[in-house]
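[Meeting: bench + compute handoff]

Bench side (C.D.) handed over the final construct sequence. Compute side (W.E.) agreed to return the predicted structure before the next meeting so the bench team could plan truncations. Sequence as handed over:
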Amino acid sequence: MTIQTSKPHFSVVIPLYNKLSHIIRTVDSVLRQSYKDFEIIVVDDGSTDGGPTRLQRLRSEHVRLVRQVNGGVSNARNRGIKEAKGEIVAFLDADDTWEPHFLEVMAKLQRDFPDAKAFGSAYQFVASEGEYLDPKIRFAKPVRNARLLTDFFEVGARGDLPFMMSSFCVMRAVCVEVGGFPEGEPMGEDQEFFARVALGHAIAYSPEVLSFYHLDSTNRACVQKVPLQECPFSQRLKEKALSLEEGSTLREQLLDYTSAHLLHLVSQNVRAGNLQVAGEMLGDERCTRQALRYGWWRLRLLLSGMFMVSSPRLYS
């Protein structure tokens, strides 16, 4: 591969671990970008399936392959941030893809919203049969034009996040400032990173669908294990919320956001048959902040034979 020597505007960081069937499709979606001022940093996190070898055959001046022993996706992304030469770091998972004008729109967001330090777009899920599915993103009002995303936690508490890892990019200086991605945490590392950025910086957002999350991918970490306890990012946000003045807007937003996470875990554990775990999670008082969802899953547990549902516990 030829290494690009000039400093690009964007550094596209792709963590790679055993995605032989998808990595070329992913990288190709970057190479086809209408906005050409970028580098691609693929961090091979100890792959054993031949994906890096296939990638080396591209011989593109935009692509740089960095190899390391397996350290997990957060470690790989942090390595990519460290290696990045660009002003903005764009993240793309090794099995996802972009529309050809993703980077062009991100560059426009930077110009149109000079106070923003991070940028994101809407996205879609792609099923195995090629069916495109819209995530359940619930804004208070329809978003038809690009704007500053001042309600990230509110939106996340109502449904799916307004952007995902593969439709999000951040100024490299901010990546360093917030400490990158937490390592050693098997799930929720992306939400921890989003939260750190959102708590300290303005995010510009485009409602245009520019990124695709492929549900048919092999070796997807998020489907391998159902969490049996609240993820660390949510625990930290709860602690942050409880440190704020009672009744403050941010406190309420963070508690609502973490309540949505808990209820999501309840739903996963009910479907996995972990009824005792689900009942204990549902006993956290934050779950009652979303009365309809709380009532629904409480009923599901009762009908599933979990007749001893924990009573709501106060924040602790």
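W.E. noted at the follow-up: The chain has eleven helices and ten strands. C.D. will use this when planning the next construct.
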